[in-house]
Amino acid sequence: MAPLIVRTISRYLLRQHVAPLGFALAALTSLMLIQQVAKQLSGLLGKGLPAGVIAEVFVLSLPFIVAVTLPMAVLVAVLHVFTRLAGDNEITALQAGGVSVTRLVAPVLAGATGVALLSFLWNDQLLPRTNHELRTLQVDIARKKPSLTLKEQVINEVVPGQTFLRASRIDGNTNKLKDVTLYDLSDAERRRIITADSGRMAYSAGGRDLFLTLLDGDIEEVNRTDPTQFNRTFFRTNRMRVSGVGNIFTQTEHDTYKSDREMSTCEMRRAASAARRDAGRATGESRVVIENDLRRLVGLGPVVAPPEPYVPDTAPPGLYCRAVRRLATWLLPLEAEAQTPRAAPPLPGRTPVPQLYVTPGAGIGEAQRVRDARTRAATYEVEIQKKYAIAAACLVFALVGIPVALRFQRGGVGLVIGMSVGVFTVYYVGLIAGEELGDRLIVSPFLAMWTPNLIFATAGLFGLWRIRKPGNAPHGGDWSDIIDPVLRLLRWPASLLWPRWGSAP
């Protein structure tokens, strides 16, 4: 059991980090949420959505924002606390009392490890569910705009029971129509059929009214009380307004499709395993196709490969996935699983007829299938590694922040802001670039996602090693300790070219 004074110091250091961590997390999350609100609010208000739906969009955006800002908040808190403790000479007093730098760093790293575990559970269990709900909600909001739901060569109900529209061609990007027929049943006494060669759609600011500009057509009008009256009017340009369009918002209750960012680690592992099995089957079929082409060239019969039975992989891979599944069975009701139909056995006395393969480009299609399957598997593997890497960034940022804060303890707020912005920029740019390289099969998923962590962890461990060496204890450094070495590095190549300029005065 640790001595009482050691436990007291550990609790003191951890308590000092709680308030800065909470404040930094709230501030960074608020800034990013305000950015999302400013970017999307005008478009959401323009669709005439209920206030509850708009609020739901931003509430569902919070888990993703927190997943990004939590490692940032750890770095800000560590920099702030250690620069303040070193600036107030508390670190010096603790070292004078026999407390080493390693003992000061240990509880903070342990706390950062706990935050990393919490971050992983957040990213793996809560974030995929909210991403799925947010994506479904955004699709429902997009469908509220009529141009996105109108289908070509189908009679579309624009206003229920009143207005119907048919077009042979609909361009969703430019809202242009071709070969338009509009059925107007809004007047109980008259029926109108409007046809036009082409047209264009536009919407009011709230998206509730549809404005149609029809070109080169005619209007056929029949009076229902007197069928002998028939009017036909030709026009070059006819502008009309259809009121009450798109003011009904329907929210999807069940959406089974999930992208990689809407899956948990266990779901993505199963999907990656299925993709690798597809790649293996495609490789085997490619060999069979090439072998049959060669046999056909020498006059031999083709080889018919026996069909491989499909066996769904329902076993959760790994200890973590098994634990999550067992916990889910305790807390949640069992889900119904569909049975996979088995192939009917061949009838007795009948043998399957071998298929004669005619493949001018033998293996080309199978090779593309192999690459697609490997790309799909790599996408899931990269997303899995990204969940681990972002969670581990909480510990890595603490490793980076501690030696910087102890070495440049008089940097103040400028050090906290400047160092945080620099680390965040480099880290997340490296993460985005690594994800792109991993998805393209250029580098392995592990290196794609863990390279920024490895670089910063190495720099942090080297900084801690320098700090704990005798003679390298904190001594109240400031920005001049960074600027002076940079100037000396700049003077050295200049002295080779211009000796007088590079020499000291």
**What pattern of helices and strands is seen along the backbone?**
HHHHEEEEEEHHHHHHH
Spatial sequence of strands, sheet with the most strands: 1-2-3-4-5-6
Using DSSP, what is the number of strands? 6
Distinct helical segment count: 11
Main β-sheet, in a few words? 6 strands, antiparallel
Average residue-wise pLDDT: 79
Low-confidence stretches: 350-362, 501-505
Portion in helices: 55-70%
Give the amount of beta strand, in percent.
5-15%
Tally of discrete structural domains: 3
The shape, in one word, is extended
Distance between the termini: 60 Å
Q: Give me the secondary-structure category.
A: alpha+beta
CA radius of gyration: 33 Å
List the helices and strands and how they pair.
Layout: H1 4-45, H2 51-87, H3 90-96, H4 101-143, E1 156-159, E2 163-171, E3 176-184, E4 190-203, E5 210-223, E6 230-242, H5 265-297, H6 318-331, H7 364-407, H8 412-439, H9 445-468, H10 480-497, H11 499-502
Antiparallel strand pairs: 1-2, 2-3, 3-4, 4-5, 5-6
Helix pairs in contact: 1-2, 1-4, 2-4, 2-7, 2-8, 4-7, 5-7, 7-8, 7-9, 8-9
Task: Quickly describe the structure.
The chain is α+β, with helices and mostly antiparallel strands.
Molecular structure report:
The protein has 505 residues and is α+β, with helices and mostly antiparallel strands. It has 3 domains: 4-142 and 384-497, no CATH class; 149-242, no CATH class; 260-331 and 355-379, no CATH class. The protein has helices at 4-45, 51-87, 90-96, 101-143, 265-297, 318-331, 364-407, 412-439, 445-468, 480-497, 499-502, and strands spanning 156-159, 163-171, 176-184, 190-203, 210-223, 230-242. It has a 6-stranded antiparallel β-sheet, with no helix packed on it. α1 (4-45) runs antiparallel to α2 (51-87), α2 crosses α7 and α4 (101-143) packs across α7. It is extended, with a radius of gyration of 33 Å. The two termini are 60 Å apart. Mean pLDDT is 79; it is low at 350-362 and 501-505.
